[in-house]
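DOMAIN: structural biology
WANTED: fold as tokens
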Amino acid sequence: GISHIGSGFFSVGYVGVDIFFAISGFVITLSYLSRPVGFIKFMWARVLRIVPLYWTVTLSTALAAVLYLSTGARAEAFSAMSPGWVFASLGFVSQPFFGTSPVVYQGWTLELEMAFYLLFGVAIFFARGRMPVIFSLLTVSLVLACGLHLLPTIVLEFCFGILVAL
């Protein structure tokens, strides 16, 4: 109930995620335009960039949580700790399969980022290097995924970044 200095400034910090998603769409597009690659090479580069560190942090967090909970302590954030939740987090699918954030809460953004990369890669595969077709396929896929409630509408911000890059 007591405000602290800067609380108003930090209360809009979530906007950073919006900016991050738009920048991500922009950077991925410019990267692809400067050096077009196929689906496998594109996805492999994304996996190498994100997965090792994310898996290390997720597994370390899960281990620390299990050790903490084994002392009899209660922690609301880890009350649903299960191997399935950990594996879903590692697979970037905890939100659709468990309806919750991954083990490392901030990983929800990476789950959406990886969904974007996968859809971008699939669009690369089907469009055979034609950027307007890639953009169209990706946009339609994201809108459809949002409409089916498979992804939140925030993923459309990736499209904004792509559009700015184009």
Observations:
- The chain is about 70% helix and 0% strand.
- The CA atoms of residues 26 and 127 lie 18 Å apart.
- The two ends are 46 Å apart (CA to CA).
- The chain has a mean pLDDT of 85.
